[in-house]
Amino acid sequence: MDGFPILSLMLAIPAIAAIACLFLSGENARWTALAATLIDFALGVLLWANYDVGGAQWQYVEQGARFGFFAWDLGIDGFALMLIMLSVFLMPICIGASWRSVTDRVPEYMAAFLLTEVLMIGTFAAQDLFLFYLFFEAGLIPMYLIIGIWGGANRIYASYKFFLYTLLGSLLMLVAMLYMAQAAGTSSIPALQATDFPAHVQTWLWLAFFASFAVKMPMWPVHTWLPDAHVQAPTAGSVIL
After folding, report:
1. Residues 117 and 6 placed together within one structural domain of the fold
2. Are residues 79 and 7 part of one domain?
3. CA 114 – CA 106 distance, rounded (Å)
4. Element (H, E) at 230
5. What's the rounded Cα separation, in Å, for the pair 139 and 145?
6. Do both 226 and 115 map to the same domain?
7. Of 43-47, 100-104, 200-204, which range is least confident?
8. Residue 23 burial (C-beta neighbours within 10 Å; 0-12, 13-18, 19+)
9. Looking at the structure, do residues 11 and 95 belong to the same domain, yes or no?
10. For the whole model, what pTM was predicted?
11. Are residues 41 and 99 in the same domain?
12. How far apart are CA 230 and CA 164, in angstroms?
C-alpha cells in the first residue's frame, strides 16, 4: 500500500460525514455516522493486515504541505496501530449504543462523535509535534460538547471542569514542545527522536510531558475531573473518556 494515503482517508471519511450529519434528519444522521465509522473500521483492518511487523519503525508515512507552524506529516508505528484499531473498533459501538438513547439534537451528537474519531486517529498518526498537539487538544472540544449538551443533571459543571483541567494541564507540554522544536530546528517527531538533548534537559522535558499526561490519564491528585465527567457524560461519552 505504499503511496496510498490511507491515514488521510481515515481522517477524511468521518470528517466529511460529520459535516453531512449537520444537514440531515436525526435518523439519516444515525445511519451516516454508523456507515462512516464502519468504513473507518474496515480501513483499520486493512491497515492492520498490511502492517509489516518486521519492517520500518514508521509505516504508511505521508508527508504533506506545511501549514504555518505545523506540517501535515502522518505515519504510524506498532503502538499507534493498536491505538487506532481500538478507536475505530469502539466508534461503531458508541454510535450503536446511542441509537435510541439519544433523541435530542441527534445530528449534532453524531457529528460530535465523528469529529472525536477524526481527532483520535489524528493524534495517534501525527508525525509532526505541533500537528500532534493540535489533534490532541482539539479532542477536548467535541467531548466538552458531548458532556455539556447530552450529559446528566450536573453536566455544565462537569464539562467546564473537564475542559479547564485538561486544557491547562497541557500547557507545560506545549512549552516543552516549543523548546524542543527551537533547539532541534524541526518539529518532526522522527527527527526529534534522533536528537541528542542534554540529560538535564531531557529530565525537564520528561517532567513537562509527564505533568500533562498525568492530568489527561488522569493520575492522583489531578484526577478529580474524571468522576464528574464519567458520571455526567452519556454512556458512549464515558466509553471514549
Report:
1. yes
2. yes
3. 12
4. helix 225-232
5. 11
6. no
7. 100-104
8. exposed
9. yes
10. 0.89
11. yes
12. 16
State the Cα–Cα distance between residues 123 and 214, nearest whole angstrom: 17
Concatenated DSSP letters of 122-184:
HHHHB-BHHHHHHHHHHTHHHHHHHHHHHS-TTHHHHHHHHHHHHHHHTHHHHHHHHHHHHHH
Angstrom distance (rounded) from CA 94 to CA 109: 11
Is a pLDDT exceeding 80 seen at residue 154? no
Residues 71 and 179 grouped into a single domain: no
CB 31 within 8 A of CB 116: no
pLDDT above 70: percentage of residues in the chain:
94
* Residue 2's pLDDT band (cuts 50, 70, 90): low
Number of alpha carbons in the 13 Å side-chain half-sphere of residue 178:
6
Residue 110 pLDDT > 80:
yes
Clarify whether residues 161 and 231 are in a common domain: yes
Beta strands in the chain (DSSP E): 59-67, 70-76
Task: Say how many domains are in the chain.
Answer: 2
In the numeric block, which cell numbers belong to residue 55? 519492517
Q: Same structural domain for residues 63 and 175?
A: no
pLDDT at 83: 93
Segment 20-33, tens digit of pLDDT: 999 988 889 999 99
The set of cell numbers assigned to 77 is 508505528
- Is the pLDDT assigned to residue 36 strictly greater than 90? yes
The dihedral formed by the CA atoms of 115, 9, 16 and 37, expressed in degrees to the nearest 10: -60
For residue 228, the enclosing domain spans: 153-235
Residue 11 lies in a domain: yes
Q: Which residue has the cell 458512549?
A: 236
